[in-house]
Amino acid sequence: MTTSPTGPTSPAAPSDPARIALIGTRGFGAVHLRALARLEAAGTARLVGVVDVAEPPEELRAIHHRSLAELLDAVSAEDQPEIAIIATPIDTHVPFATEALAVGLDVYLEKPPAPALEDHWALLAAADSAGRSVQVGFQARGGAGVDVLREEVATGALGHVDTVRAYGAWQRDRAYYNRSAWAGRRRLNGRRVADGVATNPLAHAVHAALVIAGIQEVSDIARVTTELRRAHDIEADDTTFLRIDPTGDGPSVLCALTTTAPGQSAPWVEIVGTEGSHRLRYTDDTSVRTPGEELSHQRLDLLENLIAHVRERSVELISPLSSTGAFSAVLEAIQSAPDPTPIAADSVDWQGEGDAAHPVVEDIEQTLHAALTEGRPFSELGAPWAREDAVHVWKPPTR
């Protein structure tokens, strides 16, 4: 038997189901519950307990606990968890993950992993001290298409690539931002939340673009240019331009993102080289490479990958915490800029009623495309709702 700070735990055979504790059962936690049911049926995982401050549904009542410590005290040595899945509000990610690592658990942590760059570094140190691993839930990394485009950039398969572009035009209504106290917030009760369009709903596009461009570490970033605006009655950004310039000679990353589109379209990440282009729709793992070649890409489940890694440490994680430093730097750049200013009412068309109402910003989709084509913020393109004073440049701190 092995010993953790909470007591003895039984070693697992490679073929044993991984023992899982789920922290947070609502919101995306409900998605994890459905996935765990599938993995339990396959004999890959076993849910040994859930942690939530809210009363659980009847089917979870027998394994519900108010804290991880309470769960660990309540279950037998044979049922001690090996992995904690953390699907809680963003500002609680680091405290929960640090607690789980300290008692010897590996961690699956929802994105964004941390609300501040200092928190990212602290969590890396905690994982290193504990000798445990953290997989971050950037689901787009489970799709092999991201690695295909990354390899094409690295090898010059499409010629010289100046920029990697990420486009996301989603529609979100009032109910989306009313779903919880932290939704659409930059801060809550004196703590960072960082629930903007680029750091939560469309964070997958930003992270995938950084990976494809080969920008992984904070030290890979020279500067981040942001233009943050909002049409929703929220605190965070819902319409955002990002330009991430590297320290080396690799491509820059351009992102144009919104939750104020007239409809919902599939987000994409694209490379355009001197000898061709390749656009990946990461939500359905399909891509188009010029001159019209359509590809489908295999997808691997990030939790299954973490389980395989826990069973055999030589199995590499697909989305380890160590690969998300550049994303945390972009989040820091966004949070370091002044609060996004509201877009003038005469440039916003509110459609629908009550909680189903959603804003549509004037010519938003055309403006997003133009920003990516020109590589410039909205305010430099003449968009009537854009403002030059919303543009800010951030540079990483030296450590």
Automatic annotation (TrEMBL):
Keyword Aminoacyl-tRNA synthetase: no
Domain Gfo/Idh/MocA-like oxidoreductase N-terminal: 19-138
Keyword Oxidoreductase belongs to the record: yes
Pfam families cross-referenced by the UniProt entry: GFO_IDH_MocA (PF01408), GFO_IDH_MocA_C3 (PF22725)
Domain GFO/IDH/MocA-like oxidoreductase, first and last residues per copy: 149-277
UniProt xrefs under Gene3D superfamilies: Dihydrodipicolinate Reductase, domain 2 (3.30.360.10), NAD(P)-binding Rossmann-like Domain (3.40.50.720)
Lineage: superkingdom: Bacteria
Alphabetized UniProt keyword annotations: NAD, Oxidoreductase
PANTHER family xrefs: BCDNA.GH03377
Name of this chain's protein: Gfo/Idh/MocA family protein
Organism: Brachybacterium tyrofermentans
Lineage: Bacteria, Bacillati, Actinomycetota, Actinomycetes, Micrococcales
